Amino acid sequence: MKKATLVSLLILVGVLTLTAVSYAAGLTGDQILQKVDDHETIATQGSLISQIRFDNSYSDGTTAYNVFGGLSVKIKGQPEKSLIYFEKPEDVAGTIFLSIKPEGKDARMWLYLPALGMAKEIVAEQRKQSFAGSTFSYKDIASRSFADKYSAKLVGEETVKVGDKSYDCYVLELTAKPNSDADYPTAKAWVDKNSFLMLKSEDYDSEGKLERTMEVLAVGEFEGNAVADKMIAKNVIDNSSTTITFLERKRPEKPIPDSIFDPNNLSSFDPTEFGFSS
User: What is the model's pTM?
Assistant: First the structure.
């Protein structure tokens, strides 16, 4: 029995060693996380026009929705610019969210309210507030980059099913970097091994309790790149959720001018110029 136990132990050690070597021979967790950001950049680089729908569900059984028109410009070495125009419902139509993120720095954000006729910068704790009643904060909407905020450890591989298709995924454990503006101190992510599209994530609080989950419900393709066509984020604490559906992605006929992303010009923004409803 002792010999059998020793042999079993040696086999187990060998398996664990081979597993560790196989991970070490490939990409590290940090490298995988950087590729997640790189994939996002490739899929959204240049000038882009999009239309997005948010469907919110709350713990009291009520629901709400928003339709947004989006403009973004991402050019390597230049600040990332994004404008989100509220199309529907009617009571918030004309509201504009603007973000400008210099490379390696936190994004600056503004909210334009038609009733005020001016843009107000979103600062400090306001950045963590809910965007349009959704499970996402203003910070989430302004920037979805991960490598700047988290260190990643590769802890395994799993299969994730989206619709009727299965994806082989890396499983990462994420830890917020010191002095980063990450909303959650720890997280877990499932990343498709082929496209490096993040298909699932879990966000945890400082006590290690699960607070929010994200899951891609439909994978599409844009200019040859895998993209999330539909996803759902759930707040585990208050039992609310937001389903995001990307209705359209397209390139503008000509580059979007920088003046569009000037917070001083938001009052004169013409949504019809980009095909949005006024």
Answer: 0.86
